[in-house]
Predict the 3D structure of the following.
Amino acid sequence: MVGVALRRLAQTGLAVWALASVVFLLSYRDIDAAVRLALPDATEATAGPGAGSAADQATQQAALRQRLGLDLPLFYLSRTTDPQLHWVKWRWNGAHNQYHHWAMGLARGNWGVSFRTGEAVTARLGRALSFTLPLTGTAAFLAVLCAFGLGQRLARRPRGHSLLQAALVVLHALPLFVVALALLLTLANPEVVAWFPAYGLQAADAGLDTWSQAGQYALHLVLPVAALTLTALPELTLHLSGALTRELRSDYATTARAKGLTEQAIIRHHALRNALLPTITLIAELLPALVAGAVVVEVVFALPGMGRLLADAAAARDYPVLVGGILLIGAARLLALLLADLVYFWADPRIRWHS
Amino acid sequence: MALLTPAFRRWSQWLAVLWLGVVVLVAALAPVLPLPYPPNSPDLANIATPPLEAVGHWLGTDPQGRDVLSILVFGARTAVLLTLPAAVLAAVLGALAGGAAGFWGNATRLAVPYWLLGGGVGWWALQLPVPLLGLVVAAVGLGMALLFGVRKQRFPSWPIPLNAVVVGAATTLDTVPRLVLVVAMAAGTGVSIPGLLVLLTLTSWPLPARLVRAQMLRVRTLPFVEAAQAAGISPQRVWMRHALPHALQPLRTSLPLSVAGLLGLESTLSFLGIGLAPDVASWGRLMATIRNEPSAWWAFVFPALCLIISIISLNSLSRHRAAQEKLLP
């Protein structure tokens, strides 16, 4: 068991590294655009009348490239085509290349510097994560809790809850951004009801005491958490209730019924643990999936979190932040796998005996 | 589920097929449909007008003055042209990769001369350092093949780690959620429709590959495969003609689901403003305009309804096929 878990962790770690490397190496395709976008006055310089000449811009770009280390070759090997002869030449660059520097820095805990703001990537990711983690954590917790409640109810009386089931099926078909927009338009719209604020979390925290700040924060989080929970809920519930229904049809459940146990006791003490096993995998998938969901929700509600950071970094070609984000999500995935294995170990004695 | 009695199921089935047929038909005929306004020409006299208020704008206009109806029609075209080929390509790619991985596993062996030949030609074709070296290696492989062929000896052989390669690639793509991966890669690979199609295909083949591989592991052990092998049919032919058609069963239910997932992904991407160019009409982008103009409900409700009905239809199609399969012996 431990060996299998360690092997899976090693495989996933390798996969995360490979993905981050691919995204890093893809960055060469438009590194020019990245440099242009990273210049502080990229738009004004081209539009304004008093802007510097083309030569000025070229020197600025060259200086920026040197500062960010982009003048080095990208990888250990580089390929150049001779324009006259069309003869492809390969050059060995040694350890003095961008990829090597990046990987070595990563090993020492230095994740690089954002092209856009010049801050350390870890600082930006950490700030965004301190916002996203409460959001996704609350949503995951609520979704699992509701799924357990609803799943048990559905399994107990499958005929009586067809409306609930139909509602869950419809909700399952809705993309997250539709749910988020619908919530925003109905509950945070001055023309319908404005119970919750729509935007502007950062403006709220000036000149207030701690309690009202916390209240503001919670009020801003209600709609995003609701949207994430509503989209994560149907799959979990339908899955769990399906598994429970199957278990309740098996022989040991009939025996328990013959002993005179109530349906609730059968579910709680006999069937739930067996039905849990396939659901654990889904719950483990929930953590990385919610980070992806955070991309949508944070863009809709204009929250300064991880997903928004990634979307902005992708739009601005800020590759160090993008690669750092992928590494971080991969790490979340690793953690989820580890947790799932531990929970399997706890839930199923057969796995314990086999190991 | 009491709601899904057989009669209701048949009706919902017909409705789903009808709706999907209408969407595909509209998408195919979009350029020749007699629309009052083309999708990309803003009508600046009627900005954000409600449905049926301005002449010719039956479903109203969005905050930039573009006709909602024609954006819906051309958005359907974008969605169909993007998701259907991507789902089919991903299914084909996944079926081939997963089927091969399931049938041969890691055990199949290839004789060394062929390895040398393939490696050498690949080296030369990719123009890796010193291309001539590749040709030399390929020539050595060819020479060995001829030599051993003349002497009728058995070649030494090396195993091909087919299963490990396919499963490893699928795991790699599955570690990071698809949306994040596509967002990160769309930044580096540009925003054209073919580029996005390739990206969607490359990120969605792991699921069909896993399904087909699992089914193939089951099919491989069935008596008819053994009988075909015993009859002396070559392994490639057994794989292609006998085993693979049976291993494709799970794709019947997963293909509609895959299209539904891609539909959601495409509209999410264009809602986020990543992937497609701004002048390409799409449902997601139309829905995004409501954030600037919260009172223009028609710019949100109509595309959202189209999207949701399409996804529910695809889901019910998939469920119907799953139910059909359960009835089969």
In short: The two ends of chain B are 23 Å apart (CA to CA). Residues 68-104 of chain B form the longest helix (37 residues). The mean pLDDT of chain B is 82. DSSP finds 13 helices and two strands in chain B.
